[in-house]
Write a structure and sequence with these properties.
alpha/beta; homotrimer; 47% helix; UDP-N-acetylmuramoyl-L-alanine:D-glutamate ligase; 265 residues
Chain lengths: 265, 265, 265
């Protein structure tokens, strides 16, 4: 079945296109997101001012919105940028960091989720909270398994009319009809800050070159996870893991193309 | 005397609890603070909006406030978060970065220091400035020895009714009555940005698991300093030091428990 | 001719002085800029609030202004800080990140460029956009060669009455009369985020110890580029490159002093 999931072909297109990915992301994630996007072959730009987000979306190939460190002016800019992206047919991905932890965060995430993102990516707690389930959100960490959330994700995807990706030990990506499981990654990745946010950034980069959001998200998850496995092998701790992850993404198109663990469930 | 300073036991509790540490910190420090907290075993979250800081403090086990890159909206949120923490009995730690460098910074640091922090951590210049001494503050670097500031710290601790930690070649922690000296760390740590801020974050994590603020601060200083020594051994420069420090914090509970240099003075 | 370009002597002065460099830079660049400045021997501080930027410029040896992630309050603070720097005779350097990508960005960059910076540093697209040429700006990446922009830079330097540095495979620095070419660096440096911003920071540090802005900029370009070459040698990818670059800047005064490729063109 893997033949139909041509992540390596999408990566080659990404490398060739070097798409400009407009990110409105959180302060913690900016550095690692930008470095991750550069390493995978994209061209990241962090632009958040209300005075220019619409102009900037208009020259970008994809938009990434992440609410990790939100505040009123940024929330306004996120909405504007999302609306402009939709109006232009530019794909955009939402990372509802910490939704469920505070009312402000939940209201903001739900408002943005209603603005027709191409993909929503979160951990199990976040997807459950976004769907209105009583999640066990302890801030930004997942406390319920991704598998448990896969069913909720399917309904959420149908409700929002977009793709929903739930990440965890196994990742699930669904458009409400078809659900793919992606089995890549390493537990030590959860000990490096903002790798989930960086993955959302990489999802934006794949959305720029793969017209089917379900596949774009699955490819991002699989290749980012594979790079994480490469990085974890031999890493002493999360310090070296992060450095090696950036290196691994950089060399991803030079290694033998292994078969990726993407399967329909 | 070391038997009474059970830093290793506190570390084991920290690892088990994985406390949620709410950080309102500066833009430079966010990445390394989050990675440091993850490596030591805590769960960091950076949340600064006035619309949600009180809600977020309410679900957190400790609060970290750092004024490194302050602005009016953030200062307001810091005050709100601190007040909520005190009202809930949640421990909080203040890092008065650069106090003394500008009037705005000094006013802000003093206002926050008056809101009953559990611990204030700064370098000698910062502690002297906070206490109203004419410090030789050159921005954010210490220009006077920590030892010199230890006496001032004792008075400041009595005045504020909290623990004050002065960091330098030797660190001093005092509650105004008892003063502990901690002798760990490496000079190259001063060439990596925001490690003092990260240490303040780690202090927050220990406050979540050790009810005595004097001990929590001393344990954070000792173990963070020990990890710094491990990192500096074999580091070419501050680039590798930072990576190795994160790794060292991660493996801290797997190494032989050495006796830590904490002593009463 | 190299004898007249005493970059190593300037580095020795920088190490000795440890100048306080006030940076108003973008969120992505803060961490790597601060670490780069510490590694080269300066003392960085990130301060952006309108309430304190003028006070902080007054105690600093150089000012760095970078518009990467601009917003109204920050733009106002940048103008204030620049004006205060000029009034005090403190050198300042402007990095017009992404000028040309949006109207807001272009207006802001041109306004700041008119406030008598000592040096403006950008890639070819940025310098062309700043000069009013129709650049091919795709956000923050250069799409036209630095060489092509060198002529425009000369005119811009004359118009602004300052030094203009255009960076690319070969860097050009000009005061409108004399133009220097600097041939150092490595292509992989473009895959690490914010290294251009960090270089602008290092230019600020050299402005603090070298009274001639043309030379200060050339020295910063040459030594930063040399450190990049050292870092790239043996680097697997941009992850290790960044770590090794910080290390290389740190050890720069301990290596044999090679002749630097700075020449008049």
């Amino acid at each position: 079945m893997t033949d139909q999931y041509d992540a390596w072909g999408a990566l080659a297109r990404l490398r060739k296109a070097g798409p400009l990915v407009h990110c409105i992301t959180n302060y913690v994630a900016m550095d690692v997101t930008a470095n991750t996007l550069l390493a995978i072959g994209a061209s990241p730009a962090m632009v958040h001012a209300n005075e220019e987000v619409e102009d900037f979306v208009s020259i970008s190939s994809a938009l990434v919105v992440n609410i990790g460190t939100l505040s009123p002016a940024w929330v306004q800019a996120m909405g504007r940028a999302a609306d402009r992206a939709v109006a232009r047919g530019t794909p955009w991905v939402l990372d509802p960091v910490g939704v469920g932890a505070t009312d402000y965060r939940t209201r903001t995430a739900r408002d943005l989720a209603g603005r027709k993102p191409s993909v929503v990516r979160g951990n199990a707690s976040e997807i459950l909270s976004l769907a209105g389930e009583v999640g066990g959100s302890k801030g930004v960490d997942s406390t319920r398994g991704a598998e448990e959330a896969a069913g909720v994700a399917r309904e959420l995807a149908r409700g929002l009319g977009c793709v929903v990706a739930v990440t965890g030990a196994v990742d699930y990506v669904t458009d409400g009809r078809l659900t793919l499981a992606v089995e890549h990654g390493h537990p030590m990745m959860t000990r490096v800050t903002a790798l989930g946010c960086a993955l959302t950034g990489v999802t934006g980069a794949f959305l720029a070159v793969e017209p089917e959001p379900l596949l774009a998200a699955a490819y991002a998850l699989a290749l980012f996870g594979l790079a994480g496995e490469m990085a974890a092998s031999g890493a002493i701790g999360p310090g070296t893991l992060r450095v090696r992850l950036i290196d691994a993404l950089h060399v991803l198109d030079t290694i033998p193309r292994t078969e990726l663990r993407i399967r329909e469930v």
